[in-house]
Amino acid sequence: MKKKITFEEGMQELEALVQGLEAGELSLEDSFKAYEKALALKKSLSALLDEGDKRIRVLTDAGETELNTEEAP
Question: Among 4, 32, 36, 53, which is 20 to 30 Å from 59 by CA?
């Protein structure tokens, strides 16, 4: 089972992969593996951001509903 990573951990790992690729010191096969892992991380991080966005929208909508209810006489 894969360990669920935090957004910050994922970003650090992604930055390390990008630095490794940019350094040009990896073999071709290792470069492919790093690129594939980076793409998977990007997908996971995007999903985490989407999830966070949805949570914020729900909280904001709930807050606006409460505010509107409180403002009514």
Answer: 4
Classify each residue of 31-48 as buried b or exposed e, where b means 16 or more C-beta atoms within 10 Å of its C-beta.
eeebeeebeebeebbeeb
Q: What share of the chain is helix, strand, coil (3-state, %, to 5)?
A: 85, 0, 15
pLDDT on residue 56 = 87
Are 25 and 45 in contact, with CB atoms under 8 Å apart?
no
pLDDT classification of 71: cutoffs 50, 70, 90: low
**Domain spans of the chain, in order of start:** 7-71
